[in-house]
Amino acid sequence: MHDLVSLVTEGGHVLVLFFDSDTPEQRLVTRVWEKIAPFPEGGRGYTRLLLLDELRAAEDHGDGWLTHTRTGGVALASSKDAAKAWFNHLHFKNMPALVGDPEIQAEVAAFVDDFQVTCDPRHHRPPSP
């Protein structure tokens, strides 16, 4: 980490963007994928947590300052079916073992129902990183 931080000029910045593996949406996706492909120690947030630990250690050593910000967001879908299709295509990569599992599809449908926007029933807003 010292080698990376040493490349930053005086007053410079390093910007690192990670998806947020701790959102309800990503926790669902992680649970589903871990049925067939377990993630390394620490789960899907492993690399983010490893990087933050190293950057904190660099800061403790006097190599710059760390600012960590978590920013939430939403994803819009035109219908419940579109939201479920988005999960199956984007998150599950249309993998038959995932999209063909009735328990997984029921969990996705329940998730989509839980995050439906009440002010506009045409859109469903799963929390997104």
Provide a descriptive summary of the structure in words.
- By secondary structure, the chain is mainly α.
- It has one domain.
- Helix content is 46%, strand content 3%.
- The chain contains six helices and two strands; from the N terminus they run H-H-H-E-H-H-H-E.
- It has helices spanning 2-6, 24-33, 46-60, 80-91, 96-99, 102-114, and strands at 73-74, 127-128.
- It has a two-stranded antiparallel sheet.
- The longest helix is centred in the middle third of the chain and has 15 residues, at 46-60.
- The two termini are 25 Å apart.
- The mean pLDDT is 86.
Provide the fold topology.
Layout (H helix, E strand, L loop, with lengths): L1 H5 L17 H10 L12 H15 L12 E2 L5 H12 L4 H4 L2 H13 L12 E2 L1
Antiparallel strand pairs: 1-2
Helix pairs in contact: 4-6
The shape is: elongated
> What is the end-to-end distance?
25 Å
Radius of gyration: 19 Å
β content, as a range? Answer: under 5%
- Biggest beta sheet attributes: 2 strands, antiparallel
- Computed structural class: mainly alpha
Widest β-sheet, arrangement of strands: 1-2
Helical residue percent band: 40-55%
Q: Uncertain runs with pLDDT below 50, 5 residues or more? A: none
Question: What number of structural domains do the residues give?
Answer: 1
Enumerate how many helices there are, as a single number: 6
Helix-strand string: HHHEHHHE
